Amino acid sequence: MVTKGKWIKRQAAVLSLGVVIGGIGLLYPSQIELLELAFVDAAQELRGPRRVPDGITIVAIDDFSLQQASNTDLSERRDLRSLQHWPWPRKIYATVLDRLFACGVKAVAVDLLFDSPSIYGPNDDQVLAVSLKRFQPKVVLAAQVLESRGAVGGLSLLRATPALSAALGTNQHGLLNGFQDADGVIRQRPNTYATTVSKSLGKNTPLSLGVALLQAAELPVEHHVKWDGWLPLLDPYGPPRTIPTLSIWQLLEPNSYAALKESGQLRDQLVLIGPTATSLQDLHQTAFARGAGMPGVEVHATEIANQIEGRALLFPHKSPGWSLLLGVMVVLMALASQRWERPLTRLGLLTAIAAGLLLLSLLFIALLGLEVGLVSLSAGALAAGVISSAGATLKLQWQKRRLRQSLGRYLSPAVAAEIANQPEEADDILGGRLTEVVVLMTDIRSFTSFTQSMSESGQVPRLVERLNLYFSEVVEAIHQRGGTVDKFIGDAALAVFGAPIKRSSQVDAKAAIEAALDIEKRLAKLNQHWNNKGEKSWEQVVVLSFGTVISGNIGSRSRMDYTVIGDAVNTASRLEKIAKQSNQTVVMSEEVAQLLGDQWTLQNLGLYEIRGQKAQHVYAIKSVHSKVKFLNESSKE
Asked: Residue limits of the Guanylate cyclase domain (predicted)?
């Protein structure tokens, strides 16, 4: 039974992830919002350009107009020659207004700040004032809020000069300002800024330029979002110049103006006059325009178009409750994924959930105009996938290591590693099966008398030490050749080649005889070591048999061992007696000798009756170094 404390300890990484994500949301809400807003930009760009509603036109002071104006020194028209230097005389805008209204426009907003007297003299302002008075209240001029920082911070409002303001009438200004997010991108509607600063500047603070233009045209304006806590964002229609744009030069040059008026293109249009030329530096980062920048006049035109469509892309402020909920949901997703053991399955599942949440967020933005915070949840799901799959990987590695250590007691390291690397198949590999194996058994000659002698002289610890040293050499020789140590029986060791990992019988026989010869060499080295210390040598026999056995984990619920059962084991036990009788060290059954072929020189010890089997020839290794065929010596009856 898993206690609460153990469960918490096991799930420490997942719970910590939930705390971290919830903490990030609480401590860094603006960074979370920027992540969401950046996705909104990507979603808008992925959706692609949209159709702009009818009724909006930008009259742009563009690069073409500035180039044309700079080359008017030889023009026959005196008013055009005055355009050679920026800023242009204000009487030029009076001309533009006259011509726009002559073309039948509804209302005009000028995205230029006339907060100081004209550098061309009072008469220049007077010409524009006359035009403004003629078309009021259908003209809106720009105003701007200055934000001072430092020890004495505050806000101040810049409007058109008193002469122009008087001719304009009341409430005919529109703010140029807009909120800029921490990454330098303008996303909020400019009128949101106007509403915010009005709390400090008072109720007479102008609305945004776009909203003021809508009011001048007597069109409906939605000032407030229907849902509390949701922020209306601009929803751009595409890259710069997506909103219909005319060069101001088309209104200034007589022939172009005549053609424009004749076309009726400007009839019933809301017109914004403003700079788009790069040199005039009124470019801002927005969706679709991160590099080149979008002209400020087009930002205001976007707000107008959104208002006309009744469209709002709504974005929620992240509350502390949302951050906590985000942490909890990430933990729940990570816990739910734990029903799958495989790390890649967990990672793939939670990655798919993260991708699904992003797709759902895209659909909400594109179809409903809502950004509901699924991006941060998607990032959390991906983080949960990484943590959960990492935990599963560590658990799997720990299981493999534990399985390898457990199997290492009786399997060779290579075989143990092979099984540990596929633990899900370990039960099949180690389960009961019928298989052909080569059995190897070692036994020490006269070990009983040696034990009695050591016991009488009080050297039992030394006896155990020698026996452990001997078995260590036996096990290493067997493991190096892929054998499996089955058990130790007193001074005897039993091993098999061919279980639990099956190779060809010839390969197993070759590995077994090599292990037997290696054991013989290792005992020779041990004997030399013991002789140097004045201790007696040991003599051994190593026997090999071949046959079909039952292999598998056998035992009780509390203790199990991997072992083999069958005639091949019994044969090995009986071959041991033959080896001692014939005074041979390495002895094998006839089937093993046949599997070895002509790779070793074997001595035929004769024909022996083996209980439970028919009589068969028994063989011994005669020489380790020479490779000749079997020596068919006379049979022993």
From this structure: 438-576
Alpha helices in 49-161 (DSSP H): 63-70, 78-81, 91-102, 122-135
CA nearest neighbour of 337 among 398, 373, 329 = 329
Residue 270 burial (C-beta neighbours within 10 Å; 0-12, 13-18, 19+): buried
Quick one: residue 444, left, alpha or beta (phi over 0 = left, psi -120 to 50 = alpha)?
Answer: beta
* Paired tokens of 573: 């036990």
- The whole-angstrom separation of Cα 28 and Cα 23 is 8
Please return the burial class of 376, using the count of CB atoms within 10 Å of its CB with bins 0-12, 13-18 and 19+. Answer: buried
End-to-end CA distance of the chain: 65
pLDDT score recorded for residue 343:
84
Six-digit token string for 331: 């933990």
Give the burial string for 463-479 (b: 16+ CB within 10 Å, else e): beebbeebbebbbebbb
pLDDT at 634: 35
What percentage of the chain has pLDDT greater than the value 70?
Answer: 87
Cis peptide leading into residue 206 (ω within 30°):
no
Nearest to 246 by CA among 263, 260, 231: 260
List, for residues 169-187, the tens digit of each pLDDT value: 877 999 999 999 988 999 9
Pairing between strand 56-61 and 245-247? parallel
DSSP 57: E
Give the residue with greater pLDDT, 204 vs 75: 204
Say if residue 320 is preceded by a cis peptide, omega within 30 of 0. Answer: no
Task: List the Cα angle 629/631/633 in 5-degree steps.
Answer: 165
pLDDT tens track for 258-284: 999 999 999 999 999 999 999 999 999
**The pLDDT of residue 490:** 87
- Please state, in angstroms and rounded to a whole number, the distance separating the CA atoms of residues 615 and 14: 67
Find the Cα–Cα–Cα–Cα dihedral 95, 100, 103, 104, rounded to 10°: -130
Closest among 52, 51, 49 to 269, alpha carbons compared = 52
pLDDT above 60: residue 109 = yes
DSSP-derived pairing of the beta strands 270-275 and 154-158 = unpaired
Phi, psi at 187, each rounded to 5°: -125, -35
In 10 A of CB 269, how many CB atoms?
Answer: 22
DSSP class of residue 370 equals B
Residues 6+ apart with CB under 8 A from 200: 155
Contact by Cβ (8 Å): 256, 250: yes
Tens digits of per-residue pLDDT, 347-368?
899 899 999 999 999 888 888 8
**Has this prediction a pTM greater than 0.70?**
no
Q: Residue 623 above 70 pLDDT?
A: no
